[in-house]
Amino acid sequence: MGNKGNVHVKKIPMRQCTGCNERKEKKSLIRIIRTPEDEIAVDFTGKKNGRGAYICNSIDCLKLAQKKKSLERSLKTTIPETVYQELAKEMSDNENG
């Protein structure tokens, strides 16, 4: 009695990119959060407190999310242009090392 013959398959968490709307593995996406202090930040660990939205590690997806205002909708706040520039810089810094 028990789970003889059953193989436990670990479920891979999937998330949707707010830029391109593709569903991908959570670990391949970057989490953007709105902190309790209403600041927007990149959460590379995926463990920070705050309302989160996921985006591909691609400047193109960030630009698409900015154009469609999908990141603003997901985080339920307005995001100034300067924050998008900072996010793009952090994403490119993360790509380079």
Characterize the structure shown.
By secondary structure, the chain is α+β, with helices and mostly antiparallel strands. The protein has a single domain (14-95), classed as YlxR-like (Hypothetical Cytosolic Protein, Chain: A, 2-Layer Sandwich). It has helices at 59-68, 70-75, 81-95, and strands spanning 14-16, 23-25, 29-34, 40-43, 51-56. A three-stranded antiparallel sheet has the order 4-3-5. A two-stranded antiparallel ribbon has the order 1-2. Helix 1 (59-68) packs antiparallel against helix 3.
Name some characteristics of this structure.
alpha+beta, Hypothetical Cytosolic Protein, Chain: A, 3-stranded antiparallel beta sheet, two-stranded antiparallel sheet
Largest sheet: 3 strands, antiparallel
Q: In the residues, how many domains can be counted? A: 1
Give the name of the CATH architecture.
2-Layer Sandwich
How many angstroms does the end-to-end distance come to? 50 Å
**SSE series:** EEEEEHHH
